[in-house]
C-alpha cells in the first residue's frame, strides 16, 4: 500500500502533503502549461517534505495547447479534455488498487463539492482530505506556507485563486480572463483565437450572457490577490507537522 499525495504545485496540495501520514509519496502531474516559478516552489516543498516529488506526464500530449488543437475540444458539461488527458489518465496509469490517495481539497465551500464529486466518481479509491478534516481553508494554507518560510507560487501574487495551467479553460469568471489578458497577453490572444475558431464561449460577460473572452471590456477589473490568514486551526496543523517529524 502506498500513501500518495497528489501534489499540484498549489498551496493547498503542499500543506495536504505535509499533513499526510508518513511515509507519503508526493506525485505531480506535469501538464507542460504552468508557470515557470513552479520549479522553484517544487524544490522548496521537497526540502519541506524531506522527500523528492515524483513527476508523471502524458506520453501522448506535450501540454494543454497540444490537447486542445489535436482533440479540437476545450471543455464542456463533462469537463475539460486537458484535465482528462494530462492529469486523470496519467494518474490512472500510475496508481494501483491498494493506494491511499491524498487530495488537497480545502474547507472552502466550493472544495466540499469537489471532494464529494471525486468520491462519487471514483468510489473504488481510498481518498483522504486532510485539509477538510482540519477545517483548513485556502487562505490558511497560504499562511502556513508563509510561516514555514516558503514563498507561495507566483500566480497567487498575481491575483489568481489557484496555481493552474495558463490559461485554464474551466475558468468562467471574466475577472480571471481579464487577469490573463493583463499578465499573459500572448496566451490570452492565442486562446481568444482558438475559442473563436471552435465556437466555444468560455466566460460570462457583464451583460450576464455567455461570451468569448475577447468580448470582455478592456477596463474590466482583474482579480485581486488573496492574503494569508491563520487562525487556531493553523496552529493545530503545525503541531501535527512536528509530531509527524518526530514519529
Share of helix, binned: 40-55%
How far is the first residue's CA from the last residue's CA? 19 Å
Binned strand content: 5-15%
CATH topology of the largest domain: Rossmann fold
Calculate the mean pLDDT score and round it: 93
The CATH class of the largest domain is identified as Alpha Beta
Q: How is this structure best described in words?
A:
It is a single chain. This protein has 247 residues and is α/β, with parallel strands linked by helices. It has two domains: 3-158 and 226-246, 3-Layer(aba) Sandwich (Rossmann fold); 174-215, no CATH class. It contains eleven helices and nine strands. The protein has helices at residues 11-19, 38-49, 64-71, 81-94, 109-121, 130-134, 138-147, 154-157, 174-183, 185-198, 232-246; strands spanning 3-6, 25-30, 54-57, 75-76, 79-80, 100-102, 126-128, 203-204, 210-211. The strands form three sheets. A five-stranded parallel β-sheet has the order 3-2-1-6-7, with helices on both faces. A two-stranded antiparallel ribbon has the order 4-5. Helix 2 links the parallel strand 2 and strand 3 (54-57). Helix 1 (11-19) packs across helix 7 (138-147), helix 3 (64-71) crosses helix 4 and helix 9 crosses helix 10 (185-198). The model has no long low-confidence stretch (mean pLDDT 93).
Amino acid at each position: 500500500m502506498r500513501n500518495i499525495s497528489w501534489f499540484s504545485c498549489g498551496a493547498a496540495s503542499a500543506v495536504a502533503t505535509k499533513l499526510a501520514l508518513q511515509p507519503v509519496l508526493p506525485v505531480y502531474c506535469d501538464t507542460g502549461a504552468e508557470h515557470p516559478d513552479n520549479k522553484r516552489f517544487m524544490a522548496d516543498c521537497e526540502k519541506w517534505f524531506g522527500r523528492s516529488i515524483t513527476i508523471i506526464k502524458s506520453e501522448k500530449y506535450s501540454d494543454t495547447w497540444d490537447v486542445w488543437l489535436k482533440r479540437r475540444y476545450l471543455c464542456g458539461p463533462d469537463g475539460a479534455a486537458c484535465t482528462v488527458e494530462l492529469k486523470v489518465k496519467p494518474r490512472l496509469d500510475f496508481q494501483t488498487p491498494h493506494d491511499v490517495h491524498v487530495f488537497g481539497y480545502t474547507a472552502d465551500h466550493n472544495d466540499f463539492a469537489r471532494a464529494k464529486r471525486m468520491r462519487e466518481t471514483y468510489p473504488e479509491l481510498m481518498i483522504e482530505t486532510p485539509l477538510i478534516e482540519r477545517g483548513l481553508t485556502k487562505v490558511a494554507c497560504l499562511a502556513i506556507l508563509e510561516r514555514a518560510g516558503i514563498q507561495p507560487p507566483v500566480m497567487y501574487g498575481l491575483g489568481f485563486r489557484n496555481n493552474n495551467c495558463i490559461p485554464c479553460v474551466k475558468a468562467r469568471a471574466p475577472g480571471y480572463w481579464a487577469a490573463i489578458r493583463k499578465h499573459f497577453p500572448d496566451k490570452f490572444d492565442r486562446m481568444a483565437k482558438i475559442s473563436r475558431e471552435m465556437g466555444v464561449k468560455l466566460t460570462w460577460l457583464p451583460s450576464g450572457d455567455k461570451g468569448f473572452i475577447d468580448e470582455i471590456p478592456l477596463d474590466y477589473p482583474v482579480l485581486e490577490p488573496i492574503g494569508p490568514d491563520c487562525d487556531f486551526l493553523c496552529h493545530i496543523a503545525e503541531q501535527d507537522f512536528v509530531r509527524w517529524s518526530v514519529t
